[in-house]
């Protein structure tokens, strides 16, 4: 039988689709969330039309501005193509729902903008990711993002700071984990705009409120919002609620009272920070809807604009309407993806479950690009093999999960349901026989690493006293966890570490006998710092379920009584930019497993003031790291022959 | 290639029903031969779901399915389930 017929068979034999997975007719979005009618925009090209606009702009902005700028959300070829194609939003069916209730407050004119070739922007056109919000944002979770029908507003309390056209928003997670999302619903606001703003993964902080500015008596619409909300709840652990008109006004008035920070500093590339007084602030002013006076402060890098504008102009000249443009864009898209879909090598070269590296994956290692799961998985497997060559015993003590493990395990609030999804992931592996279980984590466009140490230690049921001790400790978790760690592990090795600036600070608990059995730890190695208590809990629950499922504990065991690993947010070196976290993940992995004992002690005996993570975690040599990996990939690619090519010849 | 023609075992002709499930709970069933490369399945799936092929990952029992893997080489059974995941990116 010919391969061709095989393909055909694969193609058309599938497909009963359970559930109403076809959301294209998304008026049916009122379906229950669980029915899986979820991908709001099943057709990516449509999605990206909607995003349109200035994507390339901020990409460039970010590229040349130093590390303080927030990184762009990675631009896929589709986005790129789409952003070339359109400056003016040409998908009116989805986005041009309704004029905003209030007139646009902050109108920006692009400087050096070729108005002749590019139609004027209807409203504010700073792409979300071009805005430098800076650390200020992270420190001020009170900043809200308010969604209107056609734009988002960054609000500080009730003061509108900046307005962003909806089509420029591809992702609402601009503030990391902790901001609040308010959706203010006008009468005809459609759920479709917001459905793609729902986070892919759990949000643990902040809240989401869907607020009706006016009473809505349209039952169908209410049902849609309700469905959206249920979807949020199924994905999201933050509180989410639907407010009626009365609730909305009281919420707004309480926000008004709690607005304390009048100033938001806002910078685009090459400008000095400007305060919000230069922007329009406050409701009263916003009513006037006048163009911003000194928009030059917010200038966008002129060459960038030109570069962006010309292809856009070209495409909008060629096709003033959507129908014309769509095939054009998709053909370009196809051309781009064809080359990038080319496998450049496979790792390992033989055997099942090999990672195939595509050319597009190689480009993930270009300067300032974000790493993807393929590179991370390859990197970890590659490093693991190097460990195996050096120290087979250590390699046998390790188990690597892939980066989707945590995504699956944290998918549902009901952990047993989440566990059900990964129950079979350890087929043939007893993770409790391992000393180190490595869990790469991708959350909110950020990579970091969790390492479970001594997982078997949780198999011991805790006695009552221990539970009490621990629960009292939970209140001050991290610090005391470290104390506890010091208590249980004699820190002698780390003292031997020659370069170690790590000193054990006055071992307050050394009197405790070092004979206590080893504890289980969840080490969290995050180059952006932060605390990850929730991650530890997820992994703890995984271990408990796994212990029961794989019969490591008697079936009648109360899982709550099983051991609780100690979570340690390790002070690894910080990444000096906003694009390298994937590399730091690999680096930290490499460091840790260069000598796990020493690094474990370093991690457990850390004190912020007592040592410099840069030294312990050897981050000094990171500048070449990205290039090293790229060179490695190129080397492996050069020596690899695609077996399917050889078959053909 | 010849892989299909040369398999003499009766079960080789057997087709498996494989369920592909994405993170949203959508399920798509495929009927595949044991010797069909699962990368073809992935391509068909990506096309059907309107996603770029290089952004889709197939995970079976926690492991990423390689391009040359087949149901046979992975020892898959009828009604087995593949997790379809979407590319993860991270930088900050």
TrEMBL record, chain A:
<keyword id="KW-0378">Hydrolase</keyword>
<dbReference type="GO" id="GO:0005737">
    <property type="term" value="C:cytoplasm"/>
</dbReference>
<dbReference type="GO" id="GO:0070139">
    <property type="term" value="F:SUMO-specific endopeptidase activity"/>
</dbReference>
<keyword id="KW-0833">Ubl conjugation pathway</keyword>
<dbReference type="InterPro" id="IPR003653">
    <property type="entry name" value="Peptidase_C48_C"/>
</dbReference>
<dbReference type="GO" id="GO:0016926">
    <property type="term" value="P:protein desumoylation"/>
</dbReference>
<dbReference type="GO" id="GO:0006508">
    <property type="term" value="P:proteolysis"/>
</dbReference>
<dbReference type="Pfam" id="PF02902">
    <property type="entry name" value="Peptidase_C48"/>
</dbReference>
<dbReference type="InterPro" id="IPR038765">
    <property type="entry name" value="Papain-like_cys_pep_sf"/>
</dbReference>
<keyword id="KW-0645">Protease</keyword>
<feature type="region of interest" description="Disordered">
    <location>
        <begin position="469"/>
        <end position="516"/>
    </location>
</feature>
<feature type="region of interest" description="Disordered">
    <location>
        <begin position="1"/>
        <end position="47"/>
    </location>
</feature>
<dbReference type="InterPro" id="IPR051947">
    <property type="entry name" value="Sentrin-specific_protease"/>
</dbReference>
<feature type="region of interest" description="Disordered">
    <location>
        <begin position="265"/>
        <end position="348"/>
    </location>
</feature>
<protein>
    <submittedName>
        <fullName>Ulp1 peptidase</fullName>
        <ecNumber>3.4.22.68</ecNumber>
    </submittedName>
</protein>
<dbReference type="GO" id="GO:0005634">
    <property type="term" value="C:nucleus"/>
</dbReference>
<feature type="compositionally biased region" description="Polar residues">
    <location>
        <begin position="268"/>
        <end position="284"/>
    </location>
</feature>
<comment type="similarity">
    <text>Belongs to the peptidase C48 family.</text>
</comment>
<keyword id="KW-0597">Phosphoprotein</keyword>
<feature type="compositionally biased region" description="Low complexity">
    <location>
        <begin position="309"/>
        <end position="319"/>
    </location>
</feature>
<feature type="compositionally biased region" description="Polar residues">
    <location>
        <begin position="291"/>
        <end position="304"/>
    </location>
</feature>
<feature type="domain" description="Ubiquitin-like protease family profile">
    <location>
        <begin position="355"/>
        <end position="592"/>
    </location>
</feature>
UniProtKB/TrEMBL annotation, chain B:
<dbReference type="InterPro" id="IPR029071">
    <property type="entry name" value="Ubiquitin-like_domsf"/>
</dbReference>
<protein>
    <submittedName>
        <fullName>SUMO protein smt3</fullName>
    </submittedName>
</protein>
<dbReference type="Pfam" id="PF11976">
    <property type="entry name" value="Rad60-SLD"/>
</dbReference>
<dbReference type="InterPro" id="IPR000626">
    <property type="entry name" value="Ubiquitin-like_dom"/>
</dbReference>
<feature type="domain" description="Ubiquitin-like">
    <location>
        <begin position="16"/>
        <end position="91"/>
    </location>
</feature>
<dbReference type="InterPro" id="IPR022617">
    <property type="entry name" value="Rad60/SUMO-like_dom"/>
</dbReference>
